[in-house]
């Protein structure tokens, strides 16, 4: 039996009973002959509570000190889990991200992993221990400061360790039974997917699906690490994410034409009004945004008015970056030469994802017909070979997702999907 990396989210280790249940599952894998490395998130809402506490003390907490504070949550989880495993008669050692060899850049609150040197983890496994690693954190290569990896950081930690340790699989345990064709909290008849390719999962993750984060899937694809998304609250088979279809019985699972419908209500839209329609203007706008270290998503430029030679450029970005983007553009208004800015944070994005759509004519027409029949107005459109995304009013998102899901025959005929912990993570 090979080495297995397991990751448990906050809902799985939310309380003492949850930690004991996770400990039993880890010990079971150990009894089955696997070497086991378990990566854990902070308990329940601990990270959010620590952020709230920091903001009560300081309206703008320093990034370095915030990272020092936030990493405490995972350290609590890892120590308690190691204790629970030892109580079941098995040896376990807990490690912080830095002790596990997770090396990052020096950007606080959203560091990226540069390298993983898991020497201490290998030694612990060779001694017969189960290794418990605090997710979401590492140590800066340059400053040697503690860093955190941002949203979905524990998933990324798990996949990075799986790659460094040459694990046979990375199991991501959450509070749903796998990856579904839509968010089961919005679409009760969402269907669990048995297998999905890295490419389709990347598109779903980038479009708002919260079961797996984009960075985690990107890392897994780069190192070809199969991911098995499962629930820690049930023993059901989950969803496999890999480069090749899984084998079920005597046949491989076929690639679906449409993998799923994702949505995202965490974005805002900025429209730059009255931009001179000449070379270099769009570059100036997006260079300003890039220099402010803001990631953008969808971009649409209108046809310029013949009478004025001016156009409007709209783009979407995370709501949390909205104020920073507005300030950066206003500061550079003279250099760009636009008339005004419009900001709208009451939008939502709906995305249809599937590798099969590039060889199946009519998918785009069916998508827009479903939205039209549901009375949903479209504000922006963006496409790739395997994705169609639109921006609508935020209030229209739930109905739009359900309409598109039904229109493409994705509704399940069986029981409703279960979200055990209530969060979908």
TrEMBL record:
This is Aspartokinase. Its EC number is 2.7.2.4. ATP binds at residues 7-10, 174-175, 185, 210-211. Substrate binds at residues 47, 74. The keyword Cell cycle does not apply. Belongs to the aspartokinase family. Catalyzes the phosphorylation of the beta-carboxyl group of aspartic acid with ATP to yield 4-phospho-L-aspartate, which is involved in the branched biosynthetic pathway leading to the biosynthesis of amino acids lysine, threonine, isoleucine and methionine. The keyword rRNA-binding does not apply. InterPro entries: AceGlu_kinase-like_sf, ACT-like_dom_sf, ACT_Aspartokinase, ACT_dom, AKii-LysC-BS, Asp/Glu/Uridylate_kinase, Asp_kin_monofn, Asp_kinase. Keywords: Amino-acid biosynthesis, ATP-binding, Diaminopimelate biosynthesis, Kinase, Lysine biosynthesis, Nucleotide-binding, Transferase.
